[in-house]
Amino acid sequence: MPGITIGDTLLDLEFQTTHGKIRLYDYIGDQGWVILFSHPGDFTPVCTTELGMMAAYADKFAAMGVNLLGLSCDDVNSHQEWIKDIETYNGHKVTYPIIADPNRELIKQLNMVDPDQKDPAGNQVPSRALHIIGPDKKIKLSFLYPASTGRNIDEVVRVIEALQIAAKYRVATPANWKPGEAVVISPRVSKEEADQMFKQGYETVPLPSGEEYLRLVKV
């Protein structure tokens, strides 16, 4: 599955994790979402802050129907020891599983290899990749960060909310959108359909072209 990207369906992979063996489809469930995120290595500074923040946000993600799933090429014993450092640093329990991929099979399958970074033995390591997987087992969104740049978990929350709103309604989120703000009605929705779907009313922005494609609505 090299080069997987948005819209691709993931295979029902089985992982060895800090919570034992997990099958991906079972972990997603029928209506769930999963954030699958990789980190370059255990016992490293940026990764410790990132996984700590994921732990801090775990309840918020759970309330959104989202499960967390970490991944690196370290083994389970390493993960278990490192979790103690994460919890001490951040003050939150790491309740989500972390996948062990010492043979580097999964990071290749999941397109999570950092092309520029190697471990001390010269082996490939994961990038700071993050895939958001929907209930249909398809990748809905992917982030790819270099090792030097930690991820913004507030942005992960924001895009999850945007994806879930888009999945529920025939809408999209505009630039710099924040939860609670107006969204835009899909151009594929006719005026007649929009009138039926959004009985609370919506705003059609007047534009020089005269085209009525920019329609804002609160949902």
UniProtKB/TrEMBL annotation:
It catalyses: a hydroperoxide + [thioredoxin]-dithiol = an alcohol + [thioredoxin]-disulfide + H2O. Residues 4-165 form the Thioredoxin domain. It comes from the Eukaryota. Keywords: Antioxidant, Oxidoreductase, Peroxidase, Redox-active center. InterPro entries: AhpC/TSA, Peroxiredoxin_AhpC-typ, Peroxiredoxin_C, PRX_1cys, Thioredoxin-like_sf, Thioredoxin_domain. GO terms for molecular function: thioredoxin-dependent peroxiredoxin activity. The keyword Oxidoreductase applies. GO terms for biological process: cell redox homeostasis. The active site is at C47. Belongs to the peroxiredoxin family. Prx6 subfamily. This is Peroxiredoxin. It comes from Diospyros kaki (Kaki persimmon).
